[in-house]
Amino acid sequence: MGSSKNKPLPAPENETYSGSLLGCLGTSISLPEQEKSGEVSDSEAIELSTIQDSSLVANCMPISPWLWFEGRKEVLDYTVKKGDTIASIANTFGISSETILWANNLNSGSVLKQGQTLIILPVSGVLYRVQSGDSVSQIAKTYKGDAARIVAFNELTSESDISIGDILVIPDGKKSIATTPIISQIPIANNYFIRPTEGRLTQGIHFYNAVDLANKCGTPIYAAAQGQILKTAITNSTSRSANRGAGTYIKILHPNGTTTYYGHLSAVFVDVGVQVSQGQLIGLMGGQPGTPGAGNSTGCHIHFEVGGARNPFTY
Questions:
Q1: Alpha-carbon distance 195 to 198, whole Å?
Q2: Of 194, 180, 176, 154, whose CA–CA distance to 25 is shortest?
Q3: Are residues 209 and 298 in the same domain?
Q4: Of 20, 308, 298, 53, whose CA–CA distance to 166 is shortest?
Q5: How many domains is the chain partitioned into structurally?
Q6: Which residues pair with 261 in a beta bridge?
Q7: Does 95 share its domain with 135?
Q8: 134 and 204: one domain?
């Protein structure tokens, strides 16, 4: 497989880029054919501030300011078009072909299909979901990366600033051994997760395995399943980049090893380490721009992400 050095993202003719900062979470790239067929509206493809009423701007949140000199700064959701190959897509985005294969659990014999969605990293390397017992130094060693660069690239405060379910970009990392795919999903019962809030779906599956559910700010948010509060991030900042765009959020670890993530909250009612039951009130919906903890959002909603299993709330 060939590789190429990172370079500024070109703007090829006949493609519309809807770009912003990572969310948890990715940026969509829509093609004119889709727009003409009604699959993607002008507001989704061009006007970033009004994407589906209340979703994350470009469905994502920032990874790191280091990416300004590394090249592109966001993880993208790319829709395959006729004639695309792994090599041609890699060349367009200035990353190695292997990076695309690794991020999408493909191999050199995989055949792309028109309309297929691919995860495109901002730089050549590996996308990794943190597992129980992981450390940054161990991850760096496994994937032939650099621990200090992983910390800086992902805006970690230190090597210990990781938790189960975190999604890390490992710049220039290599997958030289059999490893767990980033999108691996364990089988779960259809009713394992309950809907975490009342509201309408305003954004379907986007990186990473998340949906946006919108309602009025202050709407109650409930634990989708029993588990332990793994992480809370509470901020009074009104900056869109607060907590890498997620604003105030909660992450829960569930007994089967899956995680759920609730972003853009206006209030948090739980502490790290406490056990919560399914349906327990854990916070309130936020996301109104200019309010504390809204993060990179255009309206009241939560960014609900499932790590390690299928996200059931795509309708």
A1: 8
A2: 154
A3: yes
A4: 308
A5: 3
A6: 251, 305
A7: no
A8: no
Phi, psi of 104 (to 5 degrees): -115, 15
Q: What tokens were used for 302? A: 């939560």
State which residues form the domain around 137. 128-152+159-171
Which CATH number does the domain housing residue 50 bear? 3.10.350.10
303 in the same domain as 215? yes
Does the global pTM surpass 0.85?
Answer: no
Same-domain pairing of 218 and 292: yes
Q: Looking at the structure, tell me whether residues 232 and 287 fall in a common domain.
A: yes
CB-based contact 73:25 (threshold 8 Å): no
Residue 150: closest CA among 126, 115, 131, 119: 126
Separation of alpha carbons 77 and 308, rounded Å: 19
Q: Is there a domain that residue 64 lies in?
A: yes
Please give the chain's pLDDT, 315 residues, in tens.
444 444 444 433 333 323 333 333 333 433 333 333 333 333 333 233 333 343 333 333 333 333 333 445 467 788 999 999 999 999 999 999 999 999 988 988 888 999 998 999 989 999 998 988 999 999 999 999 999 999 988 888 899 999 998 989 999 999 875 555 565 678 888 899 999 999 999 988 888 889 999 999 999 999 999 999 999 999 999 998 888 788 999 999 999 999 999 999 999 999 999 999 999 999 999 999 999 999 989 999 999 999 989 999 987
Radius of gyration of the chain (CA): 19
